[in-house]
Predict the structure.
Amino acid sequence: MVYIDWQLNLIANFCLLFAILQLKNYFIREFNPLKILIGIALALVFGYIGLFLDDIFILFFIGLLLLVYHHDMQKSISLVMASNIVLVFFCLATYTARIIFFVANNRWQLRLLEIYQEYFITASLLINLLYLVVFVLVAQRFRHSTAELWLQIEKYHLGKRVLTLTFSVLVSFLVILLISDLQAVTATIQASLILIFSILLIVAYYQLVFFVHTMAIQNEAREKLAYNKQLNEYLTSVQQQYTELRKFKHDFQNIMLAIKPLVDQSDSQELKDYYQDIVPDDEMSLVNKGNIAQVSAIDNDLIRGLLIQKFFIAKSKQIDFNLELTQAHYHFNVDIVVVRILGILIDNALEHVTKNREVTCAINQTEQTTEITIDNPLEKKLNLNEIFQSGYTTKQDHTGFGLSNVRKLISQTNNLFLDSKIVKGHLLMTLIIVGGE
Amino acid sequence: MYPVYLLEDNPLQREKFAKYIQNGIVINDADMQLTCVASNTEEFLQHPAQLGLYFLDMEINEDKLAGLNLAEKIRQEVPLAQIIFITTHGELSLTTLERKIAPTDYILKDKGFENIKQRITDDIQSVQEKLQSYSHCSKNLLDYKIGSRYFSILMDDLIMLYTKKEIPGRIFIITKNQLAEFNGSLNTFEQDYPNLFRCNRSFLVNLDNATSFDSKTRQLTFIDGSSCEVSFRKNKELIKRFNHK
């Protein structure tokens, strides 16, 4: 064992604690002068306590801080992570410094370290600082994915598990340090222990990330299942209501048409007026509109999701979004390009309609070919030639890049075709998809 | 004599519609004749489908799609047939119909007999006008195929076919009211449709719809405002073609 002067020991303890606190602050992005001052004070106090308690003081320090942070999961995890990392680096730095000293003096004697302890401690602290800076620089590059990981942890309430995992890693780490100190294990063995442990630590963190991702995927799947179930139940009930209404409407219209001759023969003007009142019945014709329930005939989640989403957007803008799905089943085996194009086409249609607020989406499918048509009434004359040019727009406050993007997307594929047609005052944009089974 | 067909399962309505059609023909002094009045598809199919005007009910004897299926058949056999649906069905999917059949008109029964009568008369008039305007020019169609579907474009509507260097193998079509695209080669179309003029490597145009030609810039302009350059080699041929007209 190497016996080190208590002042130097204090400095080392102080640096360790201060590094932990600063790394924690770095993790949660909370830097300000007050925090740093508090950090210095805390590190000083606990560093002094550490003189009497050996390495176990770190556990004491962390435990106390955890009690303070018990309501804030992110802080707690950051703190434990930071202390794990700093401890590993401290140990590594110490060993690096040792090796440098031995090599420099070409003598492998522990006494050397005692003689040159001021230099040795300073050197190891500097090396430690270097390690930490390198770590922070590397971590900076993974900042984004770390943030994402954290969001997932938060979203699926995995904080407690992660904290337990990291905390047990810390405890076991400290136990190694403590026991090797008590048992006066030689530095070489301690070094290899810590090295092995560090490797285990890295593996454990890797496992942690993997675990969180798995949990996230599992949870997502569960949520989606529940959502789909709810949606399907809703769609079924809407479908039933719709079918009943439609039946009624059909009967009603036939009856009305049948009694027309009787009404015509009748002398009662009252009856004739009444008949005139109910025949052009707008509310009856509304029955057919917005039948989103048909969307369940589409077997592709992406396309179905898109249509439902656009249906609700249309609804919020008081636009009738009609679906014409005359087949019982539509099979889609498409990539995301189709969904993007469809999204742009529907958005364009929804933005275009102002007076006659009605957009229709019809899908026709034969074995090899699928046609998706977006139909919207035209408000003014339109030159088809111009609408695909980048920057062309009929709308105000709109950049008009949608359709030129559609063109670009289609050009990248070989099985998509776009057909735009103006018929009876309507613009029909049809995306034709060939193949894809 | 341009034949007119009627399919309607309800006897009362069938009788009325037939009367309206005959009235319409007389009023418009149209060169048409009501040759077939059928109450179901079997009866209807006994008459050979030919170029004519078709009034079809959508739902025939509980079969909701009978009229639609029949129309698809007619469209296949007679691409230029004028098809008009008369139907109670509000949920008749207009956009789908437009893509599948491209009917001349849809008449909704919901609006009452007076309205139906007016629409039938109007439709007969518009078909009559169409017939007169087409009779002087070519009636043929330009056909192309995407996947398993065949499409036709009226030659009178066609403005040009062209290709783009950056998207080889794809042909773009411009017509009076439509833009379309499909995979193919211009050479085959140049051979199959000699009435079209190949003005340079990547453009095959319908000169009937050209409006002006600037011989200095060799720029050919069309009725929709689109234009293309005529290659130096083809310049002479173009002038020859214009002189022939």
User: Anything to note?
Assistant: Residues 6-223 of chain A form one domain.
